[in-house]
Structures are given as C-alpha cells and as structure tokens.
C-alpha cells in the first residue's frame, strides 16, 4: 500500500482487502473466501486493535514516566463519586498499579528452614495464585516409590501459565500440609478447593534435556564390587559399592567405561560410578588370560557350564553314600552345557502378580543335607488345593502301594529315551539302572490347574526353566552348619565332622556357581521352622512385586 495509507479508516482497510484479494486466483471457489475476508476487515474491532497496537509502540519508543504514583488520591478532592464516574476511578486505580509496578500478588514469606528429610534433595517452593479455576494438573502415585508425581500439565491452566510446575515433579506438601500419605483423589480435592495463594513444596524432576535414555534401566548386580579395592576407578570416593543381587538404577551410560547408577532402596539420591558391562568383561577376560588372583572382582564369577556337570556329579556321588538319600536318582544331565559366560549385570524389571495369571513356578535347589524333597512334600500336604507337585517319570517297576501319576509316571525305557531325544525333560538321571526325570509337561499340568507348582531340581536345570513362560522363583535351601547342627538330622544321626565339613563346602560351592540365579536363601535350622519360613515366602511370591529379568515382562 502507499506510504500515506492509514490503518485507522475504512478506506485503508478496504485497500488491504483489495491487495489481498488481488493475490488470489479469480476462481469461483474463492468467492466465499473473499466474502469472509471482507466481513473480517469491516469489523470495527480490527481498527481498534490496530490503534491500540500503534499507541503501545509509541509508549515503548518514548518511555514516558508517570507524573503521580498515586493518582487515585485526586478523587478524594472531588468529593463523593457519582455512579457515572466509577469507570474513571477504575482507570485511575489501574494507572496507579502500572505506575507503582505492583503486578505480583502479595504472598506470605518463604519458610526459613526445610524438613530434615529433604536435606539431600533439591526442593522448590512454588506459590501460585488461582481463583475458582482448577490448577490444571493431574497427579499419580508412583508404583515403585509411592511418591506423588505430577502426571500431566493442562495447556493454559494455572500451573501451565506459571511455568513453575512440570511433569515428573514430586509433590511433597500443599499449603504446609504433608500429602505423601494421602490418596491422589484426596490431594486433587485439596488443590481444587484451595483459593487464592497455593504453596507447593516440590522435588523438581530432571529437565528433559538432562534425561538420559538409560534413566529407566534397572540391572541386577551378579558380582560384588568394592570401589576402594579397584585401582582403575577414576575416583574411589565417587564409586558405588554393591553386593551380588543388589538392584541398581542406571542413570547414565554416556561414559562407555564408567556408568552412573543408584542402588534401589538407598536414601542417597546422588548417583555414583560403577564399571560398565563392557569394561568389566574386558578386564575379566584379561585377568583370566593372565591368571590373576588379586583382582578386585575375582574370576570366580566366570561360570563354565561344563563345571556344573562335574560339580553336580560330585555332589550326587556324595549323596549316594548318605542314608537320607537312599532311593534318589543319580547324576542329572541338561542339554547344551558347553560355553563360558561372565556374570556381570542382568537387566531387570518389576513383575507385579495379577489375578488370573498362572502362578510363578517355585524352584527349590539344595546343597548336601538340605532334604528339600521332604520340605516340599510337607508344603503340599498342608495345602494340596493351592500347591502341586510336578510328578517325575521313571522306568523302574511300580511298587504295590504306588499309583500311576501320583508318586511317578511309570513308562518304558524306550519311551523315556525317546522323550530325552525330543527335549521333554528339564533334567534326568540314572540310578540303580533305572532312569528318572522331570518333564516340562508335568509342570504344565500343575500350573494349568492354577496351582503353585513346586519342583526340586539340580541347579543347572534352571538354564532351561528361566523363561518368561515359567518365571521361576528360585529358593536355595542350605542346612545351618554350626553348634548343635546335628539336631536337624535327628538324635540318631551318625554324621561325622568330615560329613559336616563336606556339607559346608557343598553349600559354598553351590552359592558360588549358582547364587546369581537365587531369589531367596533359606537357612534350614530345623524342619518345623524351615517349613514355616518357606510358607511365608511362598505367600509373598504370589502377592508382592519382584525383580525379574526384563525380558519376562516385555510385550
């Protein structure tokens, strides 16, 4: 438009309309659009908005200063205000607000101190002013920690406009009241009913730009680690000591050698350094090659599967000479036992038992003298409707008091060997020229009845059972070896000191080779207390969340 074009007269607006319409293709389809544009630019409000905009630009350019900071006092000299001048009084009041720059609401002072339990955390005090409108935020309860978390921020709401509350923030207090033990619906009601100033005590979430992709990765440590014994760590004080079985949350894997992690359940919120899986494997291979025995993390955590068979065979040969093991099968075998792996970390996730799902498989392993078979039988005998036994197969002849499918499944040797070839057994062995084995089908039969299936197996069979299908909960039963330990074997026990020493070594060897698969260790003092402890554990397994391999819960 020409330089003398005025935005504030009707002719100028029509010139803008003419300019716009001239750029449009003269097609019949545009007629409605042209009419719409004409109506819009004919509105008086468009002219008013343009005029206000120009005045504001002039104000910004000249930066005028107020003559008075309290023009409202001039009204006092006028006398009583008549109704027609109320608008003028409102304008004077608005003038004073701008002149005195009183744009923010009056808020109570900030607290002088914070709660002791928040010393280690970064706390933010947020003050919001709202009327009857909702806060514009939803909250949820974190299943893992129980914390009250901001779930979402509604666009345009009070929380969104403030820019001070973010998704992921942890809400601790509302107007000085601790809300960590309140239900989310109770907290929402408090927020909706609050008027005027609302004071929130918040633990800020990590900014999106600072979040690592690995912030939701949890791992189970499969070895013990002591930073002060590790000469390779960049800072021993910054290292995180942990034990085998500890659950760690990895918050950063940016450094390929040293990850940042926190131990789940620790009060300390600061991350610390742990060796990365790649770095730990490299140095374990190097130490194994060099034959080092002074490494901070011993090569004992290597587990050649070939060792499993020889160790188990040794244990089984020892059992054969024990009176309490008469009638037990011989050596156990599992398919594929032929390569070496390093035990470093295992990615895990929380599994929450849900109604209607098949129960988790309960797998018991035991060292010499644990007598887990009789312990298992007692659990089932006390509650046969809830617990079931995976009935084993055998090739021996059925005795007169035995029933098919109760004590054993009795099959021919040819059928047994065919099942071995077809991979139907999780373990099998030979004893007194008869074959014995536990099949996958026998486990499925129990689980399909919605019963908790208890199996006692040689620990190398866990390699077959540790799948998302069974989600086995592994209980390691070991006898207590110490003063008065013979009482659990009966007063007539003929166990010698050498026998007890062998039992102790058996438990240590089994823990060393298979402890990384164990969820619970039951130290058997006597049959009665062991049974009671086992029953408590079995109840918790079916009711409480547990950490399991992440692949078991991924869809």
Automatic annotation (TrEMBL):
Record domain L27: where: 9-64
Domain SH3 positions? 214-284
Indicate the segments forming the Guanylate kinase-like domain, all copies. 359-539
Q: Where is the PDZ domain?
A: 125-206
Give any Pfam family that matches.
PDZ
Matches recorded under SUPFAM superfamilies: P-loop containing nucleoside triphosphate hydrolases (SSF52540), PDZ domain-like (SSF50156), SH3-domain (SSF50044)
Which keywords label this protein? Answer: SH3 domain
Gene3D superfamilies linked to this entry: 2.30.42.10, P-loop containing nucleotide triphosphate hydrolases, SH3 Domains
The answer on whether this UniProt entry bears the keyword Electron transport reads no
Top-level taxon: Eukaryota
Q: What PANTHER family does the annotation carry? A: MEMBRANE-ASSOCIATED GUANYLATE KINASE MAGUK
Q: What family is this?
A: Belongs to the MAGUK family.
Q: What is this protein called?
A: MAGUK p55 scaffold protein 3
What organism is recorded for this protein? Oreochromis niloticus (Nile tilapia)
